[in-house]
Amino acid sequence: MAAGDWSRHDYPALTARTRITNVTYPVTTGDFSAASGADPLYERSAVIDLDAIRHNVRRLADAASPAKVMAVVKADAYGHGAVPVARAALEAGASWLGVAHISEALALRTAGIDAPLLAWLHTTESNFGAAVAAGVDIGCSGWELDRIVAAAREQERPARIHLKVDTGLGRNGATIESWDQLVGEAMEYQDQGILRVVGIFSHLSVADEPQRPETDQQLAAFREVLAVAEDAGVDPEVRHLANTPATLSRPDTHFDLVRVGLGIYGLSPFEGQTSAELGLRPAMTLRTLVSQCKDVPAGQGVSYGLRYHTRGPSTLALIPMGYADGVPRVATGGPVRVAGKTYPIVGRIAMDQMVVDLGNIGPAAAGLLGAEAELFGSGSDGGPTADDWARAAGTNNYEIVTRISPRVPRRFINEPFVNKSPVKKPTVNKRATP
Ligand SMILES: Cc1ncc(COP(=O)(O)O)c(C=O)c1O
After folding, report:
1. How far is the CA of 275 from the centre of ligand 1 (A)?
2. What secondary structure does DSSP assign to 291-334, as a single string?
């Protein structure tokens, strides 16, 4: 293999571009109800606004400039749908994509996405050969180096690697102590034309808490390892350290490239600062339809364990989503907006369903069967947000969106390239108010 042949674009096309439609997008959607003839998109869906994704990428690119943007689309784009999000992010100016697993990277290549693409979390079973063949950049913390070299030899093609250093997070990445040796070995292989050190990177641990001192310490350590690498002759295309919170709050961490995940989904990484305050737009709306509405007397117990009893005559609305859909079981009290008004979930959240107590609303209850029920959305109109659910579950907004399960079909809106055939409208009276 010739030294210096680093092109990332000359790998064989893996398959034809995946056709994307609202309903059957394969990586994202577990479309269990299609066979029943029901419209899965109206029964329940996570609606993904790709305009919001594009807006957020532009906002982060502005903050990062002149550094470039890597859109982090691991974990099916934090539950939003990796391929449509990746395409929207690239349209809006991201120049790199990042994922954890090589298999995630290969799925993007299979969908026809040929942008620079980094995968950074491997096991001894990871398919480095497929990564090399598909022009996927490989994060290397140390132990992977020999396997990457073997894969490059087998593929007769140089591997593209980003050396990862642990500057304080204590997860993957080479230790500072082993950095010298790793850089030395990588450069020997580079000199032989077996690989190219394209990047050097590390990951921050507390950038979402800007007052903490550890970010400064990590930044200082990163600068030191860059100097060591430079002394050893490494001339990386990209040095990268910043995640979303650092991109928004620490320009001194930007280097050549920022790796942004949460922000492109429109969510705030900072406790006490909303998406809107950061100029971001949440891209996912999780919604369904009220599936039963019934009047009950005072003292009616609700859901497993009977942890909640109605205080007076009430209408209970059944919300047909539960922990199998990714709603945390512990999140009793989480908000659901029904016909324009927001109520807390009462009683336990079950596998498929949960309940809101609409109070004593009398005849208005009759119009609510089939009414829109929104768990979270953009928040721009005062509606519930993923942040509200994070508080109810004692977790963060990352987990709330990422855990929405494949049983919930994703519906992509504002996407130029999807099948835009009209979708059946629900026949219920959505305007009914209690
Ligand atoms: C290595 C790495 N870089 C960047 C990110 C993106 O972080 P954020 O979602 O906070 O922007 C992640 C996400 O966990 C990550 O693991």
Report:
1. 17
2. -EEEEE-TT-EETGGG-EE-SSSEEEEEE---GGGT--TT-TT-
CATH for 236: 3.20.20.10
Q: Which atom of ligand 1 is nearest to the CA of 72?
A: 6
Distance CA 400, CA 398 (A): 6
Residue 80 lies in a domain: yes
Decide: 262 in ligand 1 pocket, CB within 6 A.
yes
Residue whose Cα lies nearest atom 3 of ligand 1: it is 259
Ligand 1 within 6 A of 269 CB?
yes
Give tens-digit pLDDT for 210-264: 999 999 999 999 999 999 999 999 999 999 999 999 999 999 999 999 999 999 9
Cα of 368 vs centre of ligand 1, distance in Å, is 41
316 forms beta bridges with: 294, 357
In a domain, 253, yes or no: yes
**In which residue are the tokens 């980003």 written?**
162
Is 370 part of any domain?
A: no
Beta bridge partners of 289: 372
Its domain, for residue 245, covers 50-267
The 3-state DSSP class for residue 222 equals helix
The band of 369, judged by pLDDT with boundaries at 50, 70 and 90, is very high
Q: Does the Cβ of 244 fall within 6 Å of ligand 1?
A: yes
Residue of the CA atom closest to atom 14 of ligand 1: 261
Pocket lining: 203 vs ligand 1, CB cutoff 6 Å: yes
422 in a structural domain? no
Q: Which pLDDT score is estimated for 38?
A: 64
What local confidence, expressed as pLDDT, does residue 42 receive?
Answer: 86
The total domain count for the chain is 1
Binding site membership of 243 for ligand 1 (Cβ less than 6 Å): yes
Cα separations in angstroms, 388 against 77, 104, 209, 392, 395? 21, 30, 19, 6, 10
Q: Give kind and range of the element (H or E) at residue 244.
A: helix 244-249
Torsion (CA) 294, 295, 300, 302 in degrees, nearest 10:
30
| Pairing verdict, β 314-319 and 354-357 | antiparallel
Ligand 1 mean position, distance from CA 246 (Å): 10
User: Could you list the active site residues?
Assistant: 74, 304
Beta carbon of 260 within 6 Å of any ligand 1 atom = yes
- What are the pLDDT digits (tens) for 374-421? 999 999 999 999 999 999 999 999 999 999 999 999 999 998 654 444
